[in-house]
Amino acid sequence: MIGYISDNLLIPILDFFYGLVPSYGLAIIALTVVIRLALFPLSAGSIRNARRMRIAQPVMQQRQAEIKSRYANNPQKQQEELGKLMKEFGSPLAGCLPLLVQMPILFALFATLRGSPFADVPYTFNLKVLPADQIAAVETKPFNTASHSIFLSATNHLPVIGSLEGGTKLGVGDRQTVSLHTKSGESFSSVLGGVDQGAAFQPTWKVTKGEGVVSVDANGTITALAPGDATVEGTIPGLAARSGFLFIQALGRVGFMGDGGVNWDIAILVAAFGATLFLSQILSGMGMPPNPQQATANKITPVMITAMFLFFPLPAGVLLYMVVANIFQALQTFLLTREALPENLQKILDQQLAQQAVTVGASATGGAPSDRLPFEPKSRK
To answer: What is the dihedral of CA 24, 26, 27, 30, to 10 degrees?
Structure first.
């Protein structure tokens, strides 16, 4: 499903924007904004529900405890009253459905930006080599990789699949050649023969695991050398993987550290991601009573997620998308927090803010919250 969405929805949109402005960096930004606008109703529902639950949760918890205590011996009445409570304030799970609906599109967008033309495309084959006397008893089953859209030019791309007709189990001494082909069965090499500078898209092959178990040549022919497990990977260069945009040296560049030291373009993108994520979380609490636990999470979560990219690096093009998406999310959060609340929730929020003002005033004078009201003068001693 993710591949279908990528090939039939996201890549055509990408082509459209690249046709308007021949810049893959701008195409990423435009694609991100279009998808975020299309998903706006779903994500807005999640933000609204989170805001409402943050206000209603203390009251709901108190009411739920009272209902369970009052109708402990009457389960039917208990469920009826809990249902009324959910109808009054809404369900905490209501915000999950919009997130689940949009996940396939977001995963497809993520997969699109990790592949051609923004990054080199790997085809991975996990192999098992058996002794020659055992392979005869193994049932042969052809193996096909997932399809990847390979860009040969800004206007020419096609889905390419990697296949091993004899399957991924080989006997010692066996040889198999990986077949890269289109969905219609046309070989990738014949496609490249009709493309200008097609040699630039020839795949490179290497053994990434089990070098003593198998070998692979430049044509993708695998030779089984000894029993064991091995992995062979073929990589087709991405058209724009080495293209720059603004301060980004290459959209396909991966990793915080490079051969020449720190990749400062990646460092800036990772820092921008953390800053925009932190901003979005701060905006989500606008106009709300302070929540110490939530405030701590707002500080720690962006740091933890941002630090992940030091250990699980992503291509610069994907990081660019994530920064733009966070900016859009922060703007969306800001707008939605200014919406009027339902009357019952606004009343609860006013009470919470009033209680906060009393507590803060009492703390400032060293007294208990019940010592005086905010508008009363301080007592003289």
So the answer is: 170
DSSP state of 83: H
Cα separation, 103 vs 330, whole angstroms: 19
Domain extent for 160 = 121-236
Last residue of a domain, one of 113, 148, 180: 113
Q: What are phi and psi of 139, to 5 degrees?
A: -75, 130
Is residue 373 included in any domain, yes or no? no
Using DSSP's 3-state secondary structure scheme, residue 290 falls into coil
Share of the chain above pLDDT 90, in %: 5
Question: What pLDDT band is residue 372 in, cutting at 50, 70 and 90?
Answer: very low
Question: Residues 156, 231: one domain?
Answer: yes
Residues 276 and 323 sit within 8 Å (Cβ to Cβ): yes
Choose among 318, 320, 328: nearest CA to 44: 328
| CB-based contact 337:51 (threshold 8 Å) | yes
Q: What is the mean pLDDT of the chain?
A: 77
Helices and strands counted in the chain (H then E): 12, 13
Q: Is 265 exposed, middle or buried (0-12, 13-18, 19+ CB in 10 A)?
A: buried
Specify the pLDDT at position 342: 67
Q: Closest Cα partner for 266 from 306, 297, 296, 303?
A: 306
Query: For residue 346, what pLDDT band results from cuts at 50, 70 and 90?
Result: low
Pick the last residue of a domain from 52, 79, 113: 113
Q: Are 289 and 356 in contact (CB under 8 A)?
A: yes
How many CB atoms are located within 10 Å of the residue 122 CB? 15
Number of domains in the chain: 2
Q: What is the pTM of this model?
A: 0.66
Same domain, 125 and 109: no
Half-sphere exposure of 155 (CA within 13 A, CB side): 4
Convert the pLDDT of each residue in 54-77 to its tens digit.
777 777 777 777 777 777 777 777
Residue 99 domain-assigned? yes
